[in-house]
Amino acid sequence: MEILKVENLTKVYNSYKGAKEVTALGGINLIIRQGEFVGIMGPSGSGKTTLLNILSGIDKSTSGQVSISNRDISKMKKDELALFRRKNIGYIFQDFNLLDSLTLKENIGLPLVLDKKNPKEIENRVDELMNFFNIGDLKKKCPYHILGGQKQRVAAARALINDPEIIFADEPTGNLDSKSANNIMGTISKMNEEINSTVLMVTHDPFAASFCKRIIFIKDGKIVMEITSEGDRKKFFDKILEVQSVIGGEN
Ligand SMILES: Nc1ncnc2c1ncn2[C@@H]1O[C@H](COP(=O)(O)OP(=O)(O)OP(=O)(O)O)[C@@H](O)[C@H]1O
Ligand SMILES: [Mg+2]
């Protein structure tokens, strides 16, 4: 089943103070199916963040279509899109974006509170996810009382709370040491493998990317290559390094 379908997507940033227009995306076509775990890689300035922002409805394209579960988000009005995003999209931010004055339980349940769901229902769903991610004993704690690795699991639980069609992650290992990077990637893999979540992740980190099952490389706003894992993470890691050495993007 197709979850995400991107057709002929372009993004041109307008000239600003005499600077030239920038074509950040030059015609992207992409299909992501239910249960896939896909990475987007490419050199700095290749258009990764621009692409992710348009797919997740944060930014508008210049032309082309983006459909999530057969609904074209490029045609939605602002309010409709905001509601659609809240109900159908999960997002894991680089710095996790947890609210410091709320307990972990409140942080995770927040999207459902905004949706005016029944409190008992919210409570059950939050409990279920906290247990799934082994943070069930931290319910009443606040973000500043917990460790980085636990924060990531809270962020993952919050991304899953609304049973999203797809989860987007932008450089989830960005500011992390290798142990934390390993933890967050393990958590995202667990979501993908055990809950069958569909995940699209942007990264320039080959270690993080090696957890994906398929990787799409973009350069100058175009897809230039695609590789698929055969299940051996070490081998896939080597393959990623090899492609990077050809198309760039090691930084
Ligand atoms: N708001 C903007 N206005 C003008 N140009 C922009 C804007 N945002 C991005 N760009 C340009 O669009 C191109 C793609 O940028 P983007 O941030 O998507 O790349 P990226 O692959 O995410 O890079 P990085 O790996 O450094 O994060 C670059 O040439 C960038 O300078
Ligand atoms: Mg970027």
Task: Tell me about this structure.
The protein has 251 residues and is an alpha/beta fold. Helix 3 packs across helix 4, helix 3 packs parallel to helix 5 and helix 5 packs parallel to helix 6. A hairpin with an 8-residue loop joins strand 1 and strand 2. The two termini are 35 Å apart. It has a 6-stranded mixed sheet, with helices on both faces. The longest helix is centred in the last third of the chain and has 17 residues. It has 8 helices and 10 strands. Bound molecules: adenosine-5'-triphosphate and magnesium ion.
Using brief descriptors, characterize the structure shown.
six-stranded mixed sheet; 25% strand; four-stranded antiparallel sheet; 10 strands; globular; alpha/beta; binds adenosine-5'-triphosphate; binds magnesium ion; 8 helices
Q: Could you give a short description of this structure?
A:
With 251 residues, the protein is of the alpha/beta class. 37% of the residues lie in helices and 25% in strands.
